[in-house]
Design brief:
Blueprint: E1 6-7, E2 13-15, E3 26-37, E4 42-49, E5 54-59, E6 67-70, H1 74-78, H2 81-84, E7 89-99, E8 104-113, H3 116-120, H4 127-130, H5 141-148, E9 156-160, E10 163-166, H6 173-182, H7 188-202, E11 210-217, E12 235-242, E13 247-252, E14 267-271, H8 274-287, E15 290-293, H9 296-310, E16 320-322, E17 327-329, E18 333-336, H10 337-342, H11 344-350, H12 360-367, H13 383-419, H14 423-426, H15 431-446, H16 453-460, E19 485-495, H17 498-505, H18 539-559, H19 566-588, H20 600-623, E20 627-632, E21 635-639, H21 643-657, E22 661-672, E23 679-682, E24 688-691, H22 702-716, H23 724-743, E25 754-757, H24 770-780, E26 790-796, E27 799-802, H25 813-828, H26 835-838, H27 847-852
Helix pairs in contact: 5-15, 7-18, 11-19, 13-19, 15-19, 17-18, 17-20, 18-19, 20-21, 22-23
The structure holds a DNA duplex.
Keywords: DNA replication, DNA-binding, DNA-directed DNA polymerase, Nucleotidyltransferase, Transferase
EC number: 2.7.7.7
InterPro entries: DNA-dir_DNA_pol_B (IPR006172), DNA-dir_DNA_pol_B_CS (IPR017964), DNA-dir_DNA_pol_B_exonuc (IPR006133), DNA-dir_DNA_pol_B_multi_dom (IPR006134), DNA/RNA_pol_sf (IPR043502), DNA_pol_B_thumb (IPR042087), DNA_pol_palm_dom_sf (IPR023211), DNA_pol_type-B (IPR050240)
DNA sequence: AACTGTGGCCTGTGAC
DNA sequence: GTCACAGGCCACAGTT
């Protein structure tokens, strides 16, 4: 009998779950997760019941089976001895599906098996390898189960007489009424979709009971973290912080001599032996429906499981199951916040790119304004310090989910509902998988065959435009050359969700682009040779389009509606951010080879429509008498437009392009050099908006950054053209003082350090850039280095040196003056100022002045 | 063989 | 996803 979890690859694990079975009648409970129980050979669901605040397991009662699809007939398949004799093979069922690529019905055969392994196998085995071509065979079994039963993770269900019943949440009448009014003009198909989306998004999210866990491990070598797959060292501390008030630190005190530390507002407990300590940890892990960690997949929970095995815990007493990359719990859900915050879409679109490094300290300090405690080596801490340090980590881990009224938990649940993925998966996987799941769900719901990647490429082919950047696949957005100089009263207009609007308006989808109907060939995407179907509504167009409309015309206005309570506004803001994450990724995925529905002409057409919208808008502005100073992808910077002119332009875009334009920002004035993606704008309140300028980049030495910040401070104080001479004086003083500091070597070495991230392993660099040189010097001194590490180096006379190995005398001061110059020049150019003059260097004799002498 | 100027390329960091 | 920048690396060609 198998007791241990058998690994099936990422995420799919033949888990033997533990915990409470759902009673025959379970009140309203939220579906959070699903899996496959290898022993029972059944799919199971994890339901969170908000009154008892517990997880209940519910097992499939419909005899749902794993399957994949073949285009061969049952008769043909029956001749395949390898298939018929395959262990676990059960039966064949003929079925009709819709082949969207061909636009016609297709007869397929469902191949049913007793367990998911028989379909997918391990390595190169499984039915899908025996039969050659197969469809829908790479979908995780529990995900298949969710699709086939039309389940929506994150939504409420009930168990009645042992059966799972949907708790049909209906939109309140007044909400439905207002929505109908707003979307009255939309196509019926869109309206239906939007109503269903709104039902999922509007349904309240219950408070989720959860505990954050953090462990500390003894380190025999200072600062060397023990390998969690070996777990050689004892667990010396663990802390819990929960939503129901638990704040507890468990400490290992084998000597039994120390005095129990007192930590404010927390309970501290000693354990004389590690086994008892771990047993207590497991008791808490089993008790909570949701366990939060920061990097628990790769460290805390992984270590605990291994450590328990080392201490000869019987497997069934370890509540942790281990996949190749992820670590799960038998009873509840494990959510690794490290993975969630690492997700680039979450980082950029949900948190505005506020945190840059993916460690707990950086994320927590920018998101909730709380830092880790600073310590040296773990093993050098007193029990008192250890307890405080460990508690703080659990505390900030918990608070990352609790700030702003549980914003992050709600965001996760909303993402779960949109994507149809389990909460564990949605917090671990990238946005392309979310979109894939959403698309798969919609295919299954409609009875469409989910195409394989090769099917789409074969039918639709590649791209026809040439990218500007070598090595890219197709032509992207337009960036206009800015008009250099200082411009007062600049208004920036942007398209509301340009690419999703393009996808919606032009009916873009993998099945509608380059369709087979001769009569559609005239509907050509401007700037390409691709045409789009005029007969059928594209699936992507419908999904993305309806989500877009809902965000732009419903949730975004609501999140800013002063007539709503603050709580409501926050919730609407979460929803609109979640939608934004989806929408922003929706175009890119179709241009990513790794995406299973990769469709180059689709991505290419989307970008082409974006270019068309931009060029048309610039033309229209010109005709309205507005000068366009700059524009990038979906925005235009207008020079002193009147309100009437703006209104006309917005109206034009709505009528001619079918896209809403919003006033994104208004600058009191803006400074442009001739560089694209580089400018400084000053808002009416004097705050400064900086884009692309070198002085803002994260790798720039603090001394230079500081100087740049002061420069922007001076510019922020400029109210009108009359203030400019004064500002110039201030800038002159600033440059002089920084220059003098450099020349006088009046600095700390750290202030001059460039901090550049290692983008790959040291061995795989083709060239030898500066940060790699410095990294190699560190490695020679025994530092271990990894992808993502930040290398700090200073530029010295003899080349670069890691900041740790350099001294102040080494510094190549002239080089730093050069950096200062090029950084300042990006703005001084536009102000007609000359850096050389500011630092007392004679003006270069230009050829011109030479001849006119 | 050493030096220098050039231009393509690599790398990291952003904008959108 | 593509576009754009800074800044340095590096191969190459031509010169001394």
């Amino acid at each position: 009998m198998r007791v241990a979890a058998v690994e099936l690859g990422d995420g799919e694990e033949e888990i033997i779950p533990g915990g409470r079975m759902a009673p025959d009648d379970l009140p309203t409970s939220y579906l959070l997760s699903a899996g496959y129980d290898g022993k029972a050979e059944k799919a199971f669901l994890r339901l969170y019941e908000p009154t008892s605040q517990q997880i209940y397991l519910w097992y499939d009662d419909t005899n749902h089976l794993p399957y994949c699809i073949s285009k061969a007939s049952p008769e043909e398949l029956r001749k395949n001895k390898g298939l018929v004799g395959y262990p676990g093979f059960l039966s064949l069922e003929e079925e009709e599906k819709f082949d969207a690529l061909r636009g016609e019905a297709v007869k397929v055969t469902k191949i049913l098996a007793s367990n998911p392994l028989a379909i997918g196998g391990q390595g190169r085995s499984g039915i899908r390898y025996v039969i050659g071509d197969s469809w829908e065979s790479h979908i995780r079994y529990y995900q298949n189960y969710i699709y086939d039963r039309g389940l929506v993770p994150g939504m409420p269900y009930r168990v009645e007489g042992g059966r799972l019943v949907e708790e049909k949440y209906a939109l309140p009448d007044d909400v439905a009424g207002r929505m109908d009014a707003i979307f009255a003009e939309e196509e019926a198909e869109f309206r239906e979709h939007m109503r269903e989306w709104a039902r999922l998004l509007q349904c309240p999210v219950p408070p989720l009971r959860r505990v954050a866990v953090d462990i500390e491990v003894y380190t025999s070598v200072a600062n060397r973290i023990p390998n969690p797959d070996e777990a050689p060292e004892p667990v010396i501390a663990v802390s819990f912080v929960s939503s129901d008030g638990l704040r507890r630190v468990l400490l290992l005190n084998e000597a039994g001599e120390a005095e129990l530390p007192v930590v404010d507002g927390a309970e501290v407990v000693f354990h004389a032996d590690e086994r008892a300590l771990i047993e207590e940890i497991f008791r808490v892990l089993n008790e909570y429906p949701i366990v939060l960690t920061f990097n628990g997949d790769n460290f805390d929970l992984r270590y605990l499981r291994r450590r328990a095995q080392n201490l000869a815990f019987p497997l069934e007493e370890i509540p942790i199951t281990q996949g190749r990359r992820f670590t799960f719990l038998r009873n509840g859900l494990h959510i690794d916040l490290y993975r969630f915050f690492l997700n680039r879409s979450i980082q950029i679109y949900a948190f505005g790119n506020r945190y840059r490094e993916n460690n707990l300290d950086d994320v927590a300090s920018t998101v909730i304004g709380k830092r880790k405690l600073e310590i040296g080596d773990i093993s050098g801490l007193s029990l008192d310090e250890l307890a405080r340090y460990c508690l703080r980590d659990a505390e900030i881990t918990y608070e990352l989910t609790s700030f702003s009224d549980d914003l992050v938990m709600k965001l996760m649940v909303i993402l779960t509902r949109i994507s149809r993925m389990t909460m564990e998966d949605v917090t671990r996987m990238g946005v392309s998988r979310w979109i894939l799941a959403l698309m798969e769900h919609e295919h299954r719901r409609r009875g469409w065959l989910i195409p394989n990647a090769e099917d789409i490429i074969e039918a639709k082919g590649g791209t026809t435009t040439e990218a500007i950047i070598k090595g890219k696949k197709y032509l992207g957005a337009i960036v206009r050359s800015p008009k250099p100089g200082v411009h007062f009263d600049v208004t920036v207009l942007d398209f509301a969700s340009l690419y999703p609007s393009a996808i919606r308006n032009w009916n873009l989808s993998y099945e509608t682009i380059l369709c087979g109907h001769p009569e559609c060939r005239g509907k050509v995407v401007p700037g390409t040779s691709h045409w789009v179907c005029t007969r059928r509504r594209g699936l992507t167009s419908l999904l993305i389009g309806s989500l877009r409309d809902l965000r732009v015309r419903w949730y975004k206005p609501l999140s800013r509606d002063p007539g709503r309570s603050e709580g409501e506004r926050t919730f609407y803001d979460i929803v609109q951010s979640a939608l934004k994450v989806f929408l922003n990724a929706s175009y890119g995925v179709f241009g990513a080879e790794s995406f299973p529905l990769y469709c180059p002409p689709l991505a290419e057409s989307t970008a082409a429509i974006g270019r068309y919208a931009m060029t048309q808008t610039v033309d229209a502005s010109r005709k309205l008498g507005i000068e366009v100073i700059y524009g990038d992808t979906d925005s235009v910077f207008l020079d002193q437009p009147t309100t009437a002119q703006i209104q006309k332009l917005v109206g034009w875009a709505e009528d001619e392009l079918g896209i809403e334009m919003d006033v994104d920002k208004v600058y009191r004035y803006a400074i442009f050099s001739k560089r694209k993606k580089n400018y400084l704008g000053v808002y009416p309140d004097g705050s400064v908006d900086i884009k692309g300028l070198t002085g803002k980049k994260r790798h720039i030495p603090p001394l230079l950054k500081e100087a740049f910040l002061r420069l922007t401070g001076i510019l922020g104080g400029v109210k009108s053209i009359e203030d400019i001479p004064g500002a110039k004086e201030d800038i002159r003083d600033l440059v002089e003082s920084v220059h003098a500091r450099l020349q006088g070597r009046d600095f700390d070495l750290n202030e001059l350090a460039f901090s550049v991230m290692l983008g790959r392993k040291l061995s795989s660099y083709e060239t030898n850039p500066q940060h790699v040189k410095a990294a190699k010097m560190l490695r020679e001194r025994g530092r271990t280095l990894d992808i993502g590490d930040i290398i700090s180096y200073v530029v010295t006379q003899g080349g670069v040196k890691p900041v740790q190995l350099a001294s102040r005398r080494d510094v190549d001061v002239d080089k730093y003056v050069e950096y200062l110059e090029s950084m300042f020049e990006q703005l001084l150019d536009a102000l007609d100022m000359d850096f050389d003059e500011l630092v007392g260097r004679p003006r270069e004799t230009t050829l011109d002045s030479f001849f006119t002498r």
